[in-house]
Each structure stands twice: as C-alpha cells, then as structure tokens.
Amino acid sequence: MPITRTDVEKIAELARLELTPDETNLFTAQLSSIIEHVEKLNEIDTEQIKPMSHCSPAEDDAEYTKRDDTVQPSLGQKLAVENAPDSEAGYFKVPRVIGG
Amino acid sequence: MDLKTITIDSLRKRLSEREVKAVDICQTALDRIESLAELNAFITVTPQSALARAEEIDRGVVRSEQLPPLAGVIIAVKDNMVIRDVRTTAGSRILYNYKPPYTATAIRRLEDAGALIIGKTNCFDFDMGSSTENSAYGPVKNPWDLSRVPGGSSGGSAVAVATGMVMVALGSDTGGSIRQPASLSGVVGLKPTYGRVSRYGLIAFGSSLDQIGPLTNCVEDSARILAIISGRDPQDSTSSNCPVDDYVSSINEDIKGLRVGVPREYYGEGLDAEVKTAIEDALRKLESSGAEVIDIKLPHTEYAVPVYYLIATAEASSNLARYDGVRYGFRAEEAASLKSMYSRTRDQGFGDEVKRRIMLGTYALSAGYYDQYYGKAQRVRSLIERDFKNAFEQCDVIATPTSPTPAFRLNEKTSDPLEMYLSDIYTITANLAGIPGISLPCGLTSGGLPVGIQLLGKHFNEALLLRTANNLERELGFNSRPPLS
Q1: Which of B4, B296, B400, B466 is 20 to 30 A from B22 via CA?
Q2: Chain B residues with CB inside 8 Å of A37's CB?
Q3: How do beta strands B42-45 and A91-92 pair?
Q4: pLDDT digits (tens, 9 = 90+) for B98-122
C-alpha cells in the first residue's frame, strides 16, 4: 500500500516533527519505497510463530530483574537542570502550555 | 613509538621495564591526532585529562607498583558513550552542547584498569547509516582512499585505530556499526553477545540490538579489552551475569577439528567478486589450520533487512522521543507554544536519516499498523534466531563476508536509503539473534581497499570466537597499512 502525503503529515504530527514541504515530499517517496520493500515479510506464514521482543537471556530470569528496594543517591536538582536550554529556580522552563 | 603495532601486552612490559613513559605515548597519540585532523576522526579530544592520567601511571612505575592491566593504553571512545563533563554529541546537532553528569560503565571499567581515554570519535547522527557521512560534525574519511567512506557508524573509531592515532577504540554495534567500519578500514572489530557489556551510558538507538565492543589492531587486544568491559552491571538490567571467560589465555589454543559453517545465502547476488575471492582464501586458511569447513543453511536471510529496519526504527523512534528541547541539547528559538517548540526543535535538530527512521518507526508502531509491520517483524525475527540455533547444531563458528563490497565513495549511496540499508545485510542478523560477531582484515582488493571476514559464534561463546579469529589472523599475516600512515 503506497504511503500518501496525508499519511506522512499524520506520522510527522505523531512523531512531533514539523517537516518542511520539501521534506514531506521527499519522505512520501522514500517511505513508500521502503514500505514496499518490507512488505516482503508477508511471504512468510507466521501464524504459529511467537514474536521476539528482545534477545536478552537476562530478562527472563527474575534474578536479574529484581533488586532490593533501597534508596540510592540520585542526580539532584542542580545537576538535573544544568544542561537545560532554559531553567529558572531549579525548574525546567518551557513556552506556554495552556492558553497560548 | 608506533601505536599501530604496539600491543597492550608489549606496552605494559615496556612501561614496567621503563623503556617508555606513558606521557610520551600519550603525546605521540595527541600529535598523530593533530597531524591527521583532515580525516575528521575525532569530535572532541581530551588532552589534559589523558596526560594527567599518564603522569599517574608513570608515578606508579617509579614507585615500582604493580601496573594495572591496561596501563597506559591509549583509547578513544565513540561519541555516543557518555563521560562525565565531556561533551557528548552522538554525532547529532540536537546534542551539540550536552555535558553528561555521569560516565558509561564500559568507560569507567577501562579507566579503572589504567587506560587513558584520549577523546570522542566521530559517528553519525544517532548511529544511523552505514557510511559516517551523516554526522553533523562532517564526514569521516577513509585513510585507504580519502574519496571513500570508512564505514559506520563507528567510523571515527575505526579510522583512529587504523591510522595509529590510538591503540584501541570503543564502538557500538546496532546492525554492524563496529564490524562494518572495521572491515572497510582494515582493523579488528568485535560485537559481543547482547548483554555481555553494560549499555549504561550508551546513548540508546535500538535497545534490543545495541552493544558496545572494541576496535583494535589485533585479535589479542580485543580479547584483553573484552575481559575488562564485560560483566554484570546493576545499572543495566539486560546485562548478563554469565561468567566472563579468560578470553586471553585461550586464544592461542589451536582450532583442529573446529567446524566452520559457511551459509551459502551470504555468498550470492550483490557480493563483490574480489571480496568473495578474499573470503574464499581465508576459508582455505581456516582449513589449513585444521578446521573443517562445511555448508550450512540460514534460510530466512533474505528477510533480515526488512525485519531489521522495522525493529531498529521502531525502537529508535521511541528512544529518540526524549529529545524535545526541554532537559538538554538544542532548542529551536521563537516557538509560541510548547508543542511547536517540540516539533521545531526536532525538525531542526535531527538530520535527514534520523528523521526518516523516526518516521518509519512511528509508522510501524502506529495504531492500525502495529501488527502488520512491527509485530510481523518480531515474528520473523524469531525465525532468524531459530536459523542460527539450527546452524549451530552443525557447526561451532560461522564465516561470512562482513560487507558485500569494499569501502564505497562519499555520497555514493546517500541518495537512495534502501541501497544503503542493503549494504548491512551480512551484519544485521547477529544483532537480531543477539549472537557475537567479529570482523578481521583478510586481504586487499586490487584497488588497495581492505576486505574483512566476519566470524559469528554462539551466545556468550566469545572465547571460541576470539580463538578462531586469532588462529586465522596468524595464518593470514595481514599487515598492510593505510597509505596515509
């Protein structure tokens, strides 16, 4: 199924990407050809096959995923905002969210 | 002092016998990095901290202290691993000014073992692509031919090792990003088993695929580095507590009777004739070392590229959601609302390939398409893993080309993303199955470009993989150097 310009605009909205009109055109063509290529997977019957979400032997083992619930030192407010493009009084500062 | 030929072991001996000083080696590396600046291998160099640590090593020698295992080893790390207070960009504009508040576990372990971290190497925008052309910090050039790419995404790391700027580099491998540049740049590159090395402090791209590993000038050095960086880390719940083998002591054992599987699916259409010849020569060398070369089947190989590009982009679109201009990195100016600040920041901060992959991944995960694309890819991934399980019932190690072609020209493949994706065909399967893989140089083409052979092993059997590679390396006797150095 070919991808339309409208599809690309919708995906860009979901991905929070404000694409330029040129980018929208380019991605419409390129994503269509990539999707066409991945349709190849439909040749295989996977009805009886389990999906594989990871290849970590660790995640199936409770030994790995459980730990004692003890308080550990954390980053702290000063370090946490140090890289922020804008901050005030130890908080992240962003453009108006409501009523803007 | 030639950093291209000195090994970790010989350096340690020469330091303890006071034949060389760590500060002199460090200065040699810094001079070389400066004189080869045109290759664009580094994004950030950290001379002060490296020299300060070198002085510490030298003081230890004077006091006749026992030297740590990696004393004075000059190491560069790919710029997608964090070091506290050292700018880390992931090759992207969106992190142009990010100074991490912590250090990656693999790097911390190297430092604790006496290594000197000398800087951060160029990679492309969030690890995406196969040529290191997509870096916001300019393309890395291949020292064997400056008009060609060094492979990627750990291209800067591969070039730094190939030209003797450093002895060792760390890279990360999501779909071949250590092995492919190692192959195209003529060095050794090892992707360990998923879970072997902690990913704490590695900037995430595809979380079920990413793994940190070394690039070195010889197999033995890769074994020494792996021994240090491996092992369980409470900060990464996917890191394994499977025992870390003594990789170094076993590499000199022979490989008589070893069964090497050759998947015919990896030797078909698209494989360059000269690459094929070099690989076949290397297979004969394995036979003359006592190994038995047998045909095996990996029947789902042709589906690996579509599976990889659906899974890797889905995971990337999710991982890269965090770059929103709020907590760190670049923020677009003049946005009236929060939502428009997010969207403009991400459009201006990410490169084209990153945006393309975020778009594909978002599509594959979106309502109505999840089962059709992402779910389907996960099911076929199971079949690819099963292929390897079946193959390893007949053989101990699998041998394939690392890349279907030698290094390609700058800009040759950037216009058609699909063509670039297909160049990863031999390396992505190891990431999908989670198994370890190593690439080592096995010859040069008539045009003087290096060719790499890839060996794949069973989960957590890096010891056998390194032993096989070491035997093959000795038989091949590859000692060509890029003409530039």
Answers
A1: B466
A2: 305-306, 418
A3: unpaired
A4: 999 999 999 999 999 999 999 999 9
| For helices B352-365 and A5-14, angle between their N-to-C axes, nearest 10 degrees | 90
Check CB contact under 8 Å for B434 and A56. Answer: yes
CA nearest neighbour of B10 among B67, B64, B79? B67
Q: How far is residue A49's CA from residue A52's CA, in Å, rounded to a whole number?
A: 9
Please indicate if any CB of chain A lies within 8 Å of the CB of B370.
no
CA–CA dist B133, B171 (Å, integer)? 16
Q: What is the pLDDT of residues B63-93, one digit of tens each?
A: 999 999 999 999 999 999 999 999 999 999 9
- Band the pLDDT of B463: cuts 50, 70, 90: very high
CA B182 – CA B175 distance, rounded (Å): 13
CB pair distance less than 8 Å for A56 and B238: yes
| B177 belongs to the catalytic site | yes
pLDDT at A55: 80
Does B315 touch chain A if contact means CB atoms closer than 8 Å?
A: no
Contact list, A82 vs chain B (CB under 8 Å)? 99, 101
B187: tokens are 């060095």
What distance in Å separates the CA atoms of residue B309 and residue A34, rounded to the nearest whole number?
9
Number of helices (H), then strands (E), belonging to chain A: the values are: 4, 2
Partner residue facing B99 (CB), from A18, A38, A83: A83
CA atoms within 13 A on the CB side of B304: 27
Q: With contact defined as beta carbons under 8 Å apart, do B366 and B358 qualify?
A: no
Check B381 against A37: CB less than 8 A apart. Answer: no
Which residue, B417, B407, B410, B479, is CA-closest to B442? Answer: B479
Q: Are B132 and B153 in contact (CB under 8 A)?
A: yes
Amino acid at B36: L
Identify the burial level of A92 via C-beta atoms within 10 angstroms of its C-beta, where 0-12 means exposed, 13-18 middle and 19 or more buried.
middle
Integer angstrom CA distances of residue A13 from A24, B152, B184, B214, B368: 12, 30, 38, 39, 16
Instruction: Tell me which chain B residues have a C-beta less than 8 angstroms from the C-beta of A57.
Output: 195, 240, 242, 459
Q: Does A18 touch chain B (CB under 8 A)?
A: yes
Complex ipTM, two decimals?
0.93
- Which of B240, B379, B385 to substitute to test the interface with A, most A CBs within 10 Å? B379
Question: What's the gap in Å between the CA of B93 and the closest CA on chain A?
Answer: 14
